[in-house]
Amino acid sequence: MNMKHILPAAALLLSAYTASAQLPPIFDQSRNATVETTPTVRKYLSPVKIVWQAGKEGENVINASRFLLKGNGQADLANKDMCILKSTSSVHPALLFDFGTELHGGLQIVTGMSKVNKPVKLRVRFGESVSEAMSDIEPQKNATNDHAMRDMIVEVPWLGKLEVGNTGFRFVRIDLLDDNTELQLKEVRAIFVYRDIPYLGSFKSSDPLLDKIWMTGAYTVHLNMQDYLWDGIKRDRLVWIGDMHPETSTISAVFGNNEVVPKSLDLSRDITPLPGYMNGMISYSMWWVLIQRDWFMHTGDMNYLKQQAAYLKGLLAQLVSKIDPVTNSEKLTDGTRFLDWPSSENKPAIHAGLQAMMVMTLQAGADLSKRLNDHATAEKCAEAISRLKKYVPEINGSKQAAALLALADMAPAEKINQEVLSVGGVKDFSTFYGYYMLQAKAKAGDYQGSLNNIRTYWGAMLNLGATTFWEDFNMDWLPNASRIDEVVKPGQKDIHGDYGAYCYKGFRHSLCHGWASGPTAWLTEHVLGVSVVEPGCKVLRIVPHLGDLTFAEGTFPTPYGVVTIKHRKLPDGKIQSDIKAPSQVKILRK
User: Fold this and answer.
1) Per-residue pLDDT in tens (0 to 9) along the chain, 590 residues
2) 197: number of CA atoms within 13 Å, CB side?
3) 190 lies in the same domain as 290
4) Domain-located, residue 382
5) Radius of gyration of the chain (CA)
6) What is the enclosing helix (H) or strand (E) of 450?
7) Do residues 529 and 545 lie in contact, with contact meaning Cβ atoms separated by under 8 Å?
8) Do the domain assignments include residue 330?
9) Strands annotated E in 160-266
10) Same domain, 276 and 190
11) How far does the signal peptide extend, from start to end residue (predicted)?
12) How many CA atoms lie within 13 A of 466 on its CB side?
C-alpha cells in the first residue's frame, strides 16, 4: 500500500469533519462577545522572603519556609511537606510575603488535606509596600479598594486551588480568620500577568545607578502595558492621555512599535467627541496631538495618521479659537485647567504652562497637517503660534511652567535653567513633569545637571526599596523615612502611608506609575544621543552627551531593526562612537 496516497486522503477527511462538526453554542460567532487577543502571559512566582508572621513558630505556624520553594500549582494526595496554620479562639496566624519586585496580577493558593473537609476563610491583603499590605481599609492612612480590590476575605477549598486578585503589588499578607481551625497550605504564589514582549532598547554606562534607573523606568511602563496603556496598575488602571506622553516616549525607546499605544489613543479619541477634552482636562487633548506627532515620527505609519485626520483638524480648530484676539492669551476655560498635581493650585503657573502647551501643540499639529496635505489647517496653526508667542505669562516660581516655556521657545532655555530649574536642585521636581524639566535642562545644554538630578531624585526612590517609580515623590519626605520593603520601625516615618496629597494621599499613592519613567526616554535621547529626524526612523541623529560618564552604550528600536550604539570618552575628552544601523536607517552625527 502506498502511504503517500493514504495520508493526504486522511488529512482531507479530517478537514472535512472539522468543518462540518458542531461546536458548543458558546463558540457561536454570532454571540455578543469580545475575543481578547492581548499577548499577555501568566507566570507563577514563589515568594523570595517571609517578612513577618503572627503566631508562634512551631505551634501556630509550622514549616512556613516551604513557600519559598518552587511550586507546580497542583494539589496532590501525597500531602507531604505542608505548611500548617493553626488558630485558636484568640490566636490567628498570619504571614507576610515579599515577591521581590512590583508585579501586576493576583495570588494562587494551593491547599492540602486538612482534618476538616470544608472551606476555610482567609483574609488576603495586597500591598505595594510592606506597610500597605499590613494596613486596614480606613481613613487615617487612606488604604482603599479603589480601582482594584487589594483587601478581601476569601474561602479556600479543601485539597484544591484558589486564584484571586487583579492589582499591582509586591507584598501579600494572608490571615487565617476561622477560630480553632487547621489549614494545610502547599503553595502561595504570585500570578504575574504581563505583555510578552522583548526589550529591544537597552542602556548601559559607567554608572550602575543610571543603568538601574533606566531599566526601572522601562519596567514601570511595561507593567502598565496591559489591556490598554494604563497610568498605574494599582490605581488608576485607566487611560490618562497626558500621563501617556512620558510612557509612549519610553515605549519608543525600549519596545518600539506596540499596538497598545494606538489602541489607547483611539479609545480616548472615540470616547471624547469634540468639543470635549480628553479626561476632562484641556491639556490632555493637547498631549494627544503631541503623542500623535511623536508616534508618527517613530513608526512612520501614514495609514494610522490618516485615521486621525478629521479629529485632528477639528481639535486644532477648536484650540485656535481659544486665543484672545486682543491679548493673544489662551482663554481655555471650557475644561479642567491642569498641568500636574504639585502645580495644581498655582493658577498663574497653569496659565503660563497652557500658553506654552498651545504653542507646542499647534507646532505639532501644523507638522502633522502638512503631512496630511491639509495646508489650510497648517497655516492657521502657524498664524496662531505667531500670535501666542507675543504674550509670555509669568511662571510664578513654577518649574513646571518654566520648563514648558523653554521647550516652546517662548523663553531662553539657558536663562530658565539658571534662574528656575537649577535653583534648589531637585526641589519642587515632580515625577511627571520632572521629564520636561530634564528636557528643558538638556535644551540649555546642562546635561551634567540633568544626570545629577536623575541620580538624586529617581535614585532616592530606589534607595527606599522601589522596584518601580512612583506617582509622586518629594525629597522633603526623606528624613527618618522607612523603606517600603521593611516593617516601619518605631519613630520612623512611613514613606508610603504618611505622605502624599490630592488624589494620592497615604496608601492610595501609586508606587508604579508610568508617567514617572521619563529618565529612561531621556537617557536614550540625550546620553546615547538618539533623536528621530525623519518619520519611521529613516533618519536618526546620534549626538551623545556623556557628562561625567566614561562610556555609554545601548540599542534603539526602529521599524527596520535595532540600532547598536557604543560611545567611549577618550583621554582628551573627545567621544569615540561605534554605531551599527539597518541599511534603511541613515545616521547623522551632527
Assistant:
1) 444 444 445 444 444 444 556 778 777 766 666 666 668 999 999 999 999 999 999 999 999 999 999 999 999 999 999 999 999 999 999 999 999 999 999 999 999 998 888 999 999 999 999 999 999 998 889 999 999 999 999 999 999 999 999 999 999 999 999 999 999 999 999 999 999 999 999 999 999 999 999 999 999 999 999 999 999 999 999 999 999 999 999 999 999 999 999 999 999 999 999 999 999 999 999 999 999 999 999 999 999 999 999 999 999 999 999 999 999 999 999 999 999 999 999 999 999 999 999 999 999 999 999 999 999 999 999 999 999 999 999 999 999 999 999 999 999 999 999 999 999 999 999 999 999 999 999 999 999 999 999 999 999 999 999 999 999 999 999 999 999 999 999 999 999 999 999 999 999 999 999 999 999 999 999 999 999 999 999 999 999 999 999 999 999 999 999 999 999 999 999 999 999 999 999 999 98
2) 25
3) no
4) yes
5) 27
6) helix 447-463
7) yes
8) yes
9) 161-176, 182-195, 202-205
10) no
11) 1-21
12) 28
What are 97's three cell numbers? 510575603
Assign 229 to helix, strand or coil. Answer: strand
188, 97 Cβ separation under 8 angstroms:
yes
Cα–Cα distances (Å) from 508 to 137, 168, 293, 458, in that order, read 11, 12, 33, 20
> Residue 498 corresponds to which cell in the numbers above?
504618611
**The model scores a pTM over 0.70:** yes
Sign for the CA dihedral angle at 379, 384, 386, 389 comes to: negative
Beta strand 586-588 pairing with 539-542: parallel
187 lies in which domain range?
41-195
Q: Find all residues with CB under 8 Å of 501, minimum gap 6, and list them.
A: 341, 342, 472
Q: Does 293 share its domain with 383? A: yes
Q: Is the link from the previous residue into 236 a cis peptide, with omega within 30 of 0?
A: yes
Task: State whether 283 and 142 are in the same domain.
Answer: no
Cell of 499: 505622605
Cis peptide before 275 (omega within 30 of 0): yes
Check: CB of residue 438 under 8 Å from CB of residue 453.
Answer: yes
Cell of 425: 536642585
The CA distances from residue 403 to 259, 356, 504, in Å, are: 30, 9, 24
Helical ranges in 41-96 per DSSP H: none
| Cα pseudo-dihedral 348, 354, 360, 365, rounded to 10 | -160
CATH number at residue 169: 2.60.120.260
Cell 540599542 -> residue: 555
Q: Domain count for the chain, please give it.
A: 2
Residues in the chain: 590
